[in-house]
């Protein structure tokens, strides 16, 4: 089981993480919460120094990066609350029932246990929130698993500096050695992913690399879950009534959402389906003056975005609403100002191989749909899965009593089949970290659409249920004891009742 | 998306299931519950006729098969209660919070939606409970997904007869056409598993076939979850004090568990670790007269079990406690009486390649461990994952205050890392269908150890979370509405609180 083709350095990392796993899993909720709070505090304390490195390495703005550090620190603290709350353990107690419908049933209790060491592949576009101490690391550590972070090549210095902050914070609270690790290089990441001691992987990045890693995880002698957050075009549907009500507000919101962080967000709205001949394109054009150019993350992404933009602009039927563009500086960095184009549904269909793919950068496509278009049928025609789908409607339509209410309901149902998050009258960028959040969606948006990578449910990716049958109290995990020492919610099935019928929550 | 290499017959089946999916998903909980109850009632009404076919095709006893039909019918009804209860939807409501720690947060609500058409590969050894209308089908239909059952080649006539019962029951309650389908043949099953309209698979069977199908599901252009329940040896640990207290009771219980259904159960205890020189082997030998020979499912399984038994008996150091054996009748059927052998831990280690594999049939191995053996370290030495792990202790040891309590706790922790269910002073065969049940375990026990194939949580395999952000009430699913028309538990995060901290259940 421990045979390995790792380099001595990587072997030490993986062996250290594996050795730390039992001790870390055995920490009390309060101790594990303390680890997370210490990391959040340390990260925030190091903000000025880390943001300075991040600006240089990623080209993202100081305001955005400052906000991202805050979000990342708060996220670590939120997960400490998740750990203390304990409802993520989904503790269930079925009392023994001599009269059970299928004959005497034993006492069965179920909780969740941490999987063990996890590898997390960092993202380029969130150097804090989806990187070394980001949401994946926070949920891995919250679940009670050691983490090995594979640094993104786009911000190696920041990754090392953040890791040093993390190590010092972990030492300060006496966390087991080996709980947190950072490695560099794609080959190193793949080698670790293949190691039998690694029990799951998480990833944020492209469909291509995501597919590669998903396949590696699935083909291991012991397959493991791989949680990849890959690509998404996040379609938006805007009704005629919404445009009549607030074209300027929608135009301005769209442009802010598309231009923010130079459009390098997995939730950037990529396609806006609008009624043909509406006032929205003109309103968008009028709002163009609001945004300034923004450096793209790295020269490779800039080149690739520039080519994608050329392809789209050269597609027959495509008109520039806001031309935008990419300017390259002497260091090879690309500075983008947002591009918005429009195209008729007919031309979109005709050129769809060239148009439907995600453009990673500040570009969006208004697709003008003729009256009578079956909106619910549009998405399945072009896409399998997406992270989000957005609908803009008028105040009147929000009552659900207008003539098009049935059509709108069909659109909601269709979107719910293809996305992880349906939203109204807002923008998909900016994903709140809350218990009900769902940041995931059918392939290729993610490699596992039963999970979320944002929100406190993200912790569930790194846990596994275990049942205890007729287990004496002295040998039960605390989460499952009658006296409920952790004070967490326990779903109780008393004797004399079957199924979930009548389960009570206590705690 | 609908290109297909299916035969016309299979294309009709898959197209029918896909067409039925939206209508079936749209049924109210009460309507879906009615479908499940109708299936349970119809199955039980057809019991005499179906059991007669099953006896002929599987060789299982009338008593066992009658009990299995009851269990399967009750299971369908239990899932109707799960559907009505609604807690499986894990409905969450985070109210908008203008003061949220990361800035104003929108209203976010989350529920679960059915995945779509599912293929379920039936098992040979449970012609009812893990076959056409078994636990997988029940949880698939309860989740709101159409099912395509691939019949097991061991009981084709029974599969057809059960399917006819199902179709009639579905017609009687007006369920959408195409919700339930039966196909025959491994190639047909593989072709359907590869079809893009199929959204998940479930399977009960061997590690070899399970690996093959898991790999096919993972390698699709759109990978899908595959829930395989594969192989398990279900280790048992018996303390010296337990043997001193009740050797005869343990011996008799063990033999009943190993001999029941001719040992053809995935939860059959395969290895019993006992203190060297204990009275248990003699007690087992004395209990041998209790059991009679039992037909094995089919000639192939009988041949394979017979060879496995020969290999084990010929391994150096192995002694027959109860020789048992297989007698072949003129039809080629094998009739087995149980075999129990013992071997020292040293000889077990020496011959372990030949001994550790699952023997599918009525055979178990007593491994005699010398005093001072680190029991917690034993399992990881030989196995990755198992469905269950059992510990037999004395009444005194159950208090957790004896000298070996620390050692026992370490064993519990070690088992919880490698199995889905830890049990005390009982036998792993006979898996209760309850909310807390966990029938699953790390590879190769299952292909997805975050899930269970028994118990009401099994429904979760066929659902996917979807969040609704700032969605007007008129467009929200009923599960997420403030007035809670379905009366299900909703986890509420009010404004002014972060994380899971202070979530309230209502409903």
UniProtKB/TrEMBL annotation, chains A, B:
The lineage of its organism: Bacteria, Bacillati, Actinomycetota, Actinomycetes, Micrococcales. Residues 485-507 are annotated as: Disordered. Keywords: Oxidoreductase. InterPro entries: Ald_DH/histidinol_DH, Ald_DH_N, Aldehyde_DH_dom, Aldehyde_DH_Superfamily, ALDH_KGSADH. Gene3D superfamilies: Aldehyde Dehydrogenase, Chain A, domain 1. Residues 9-371 form the Aldehyde dehydrogenase domain. It comes from the Bacteria. The keyword Oxidoreductase applies. Pfam families: Aldedh. GO terms for molecular function: oxidoreductase activity, acting on the aldehyde or oxo group of donors, NAD or NADP as acceptor. PANTHER family: ALDEHYDE DEHYDROGENASE-RELATED, SUCCINATE-SEMIALDEHYDE DEHYDROGENASE, MITOCHONDRIAL. This is NADP-dependent aldehyde dehydrogenase.
């Amino acid at each position: 089981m421990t045979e390995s083709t790792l380099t001595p350095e990587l072997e030490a990392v993986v062996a250290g993480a594996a050795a730390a796993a039992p001790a870390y899993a055995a920490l009390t909720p309060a101790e594990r919460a303390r680890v997370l709070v210490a990391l959040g505090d340390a990260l925030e304390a190091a903000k000025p120094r880390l943001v300075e490195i991040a600006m240089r390495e990623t080209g993202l703005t100081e305001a955005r990066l400052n906000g991202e550090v805050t979000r990342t620190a708060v996220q670590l603290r939120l997960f400490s609350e998740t750990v203390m709350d304990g409802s993520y353990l989904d503790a269930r107690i079925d009392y023994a029932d001599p009269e059970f419908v299928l004959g005497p049933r034993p006492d069965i209790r179920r909780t969740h246990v941490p999987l063990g060491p996890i590898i997390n592949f960092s993202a380029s576009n969130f150097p804090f929130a989806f990187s070394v101490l980001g949401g994946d690391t926070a949920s891995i550590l919250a679940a009670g698993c050691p983490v090995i972070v594979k640094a993104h090549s786009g911000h190696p210095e920041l990754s090392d500096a953040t890791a040093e902050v993390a190590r010092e914070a972990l030492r300060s609270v006496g966390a087991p050695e080996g709980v947190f690790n950072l490695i560099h290089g794609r080959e190193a990441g793949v080698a670790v992913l293949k190691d039998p001691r690694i029990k799951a992987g998480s990833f944020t990045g492209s469909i291509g690399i995501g597919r590669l890693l998903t396949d590696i995880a699935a083909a291991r002698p012991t397959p493991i879950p791989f949680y990849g957050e890959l690509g998404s075009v996040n379609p938006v549907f805007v009704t005629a009534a919404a445009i009549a009500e607030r074209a300027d507000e929608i135009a301005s919101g769209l442009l802010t959402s598309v231009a923010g962080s130079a459009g390098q967000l997995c939730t950037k709205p990529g396609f806006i389906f609008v009624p043909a001949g509406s006032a929205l394109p003109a309103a968008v054009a009028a709002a163009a003056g609001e945004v300034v150019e923004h450096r793209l993350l790295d020269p490779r992404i800039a080149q690739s975005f520039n080519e994608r933009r050329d392809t789209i602009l050269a597609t027959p039927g495509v008109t520039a609403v806001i031309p935008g563009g990419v300017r390259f500086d002497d260091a090879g960095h690309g500075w983008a100002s947002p591009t918005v184009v429009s195209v008729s549904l007919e031309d979109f269909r005709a050129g769809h191989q060239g148009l439907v793919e995600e453009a990673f950068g500040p570009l969006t496509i208004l697709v003008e749909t003729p009256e009578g278009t079956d909106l619910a049928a549009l998405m399945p025609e072009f896409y399998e899965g997406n992270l989000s789908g957005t609908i803009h409607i008028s105040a009147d339509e929000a009552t659900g009593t207008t003539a098009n209410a049935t059509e709108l309901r069909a659109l909601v149902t269709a979107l719910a089949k293809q996305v992880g998050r349906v939203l109204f009258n807002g923008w998909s960028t900016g994903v709140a970290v809350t218990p009900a959040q769902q940041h995931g969606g059918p392939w290729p948006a993610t490699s596992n659409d039963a999970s979320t990578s944002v929100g406190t449910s993200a912790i569930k990716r790194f846990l596994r249920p275990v049942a205890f049958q007729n287990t004496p109290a002295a040998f039960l995990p605390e989460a499952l004891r009658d006296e409920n020492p952790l004070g967490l919610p326990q779903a109780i099935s008393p004797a004399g009742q079957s199924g979930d019928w009548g389960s009570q929550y206590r705690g």
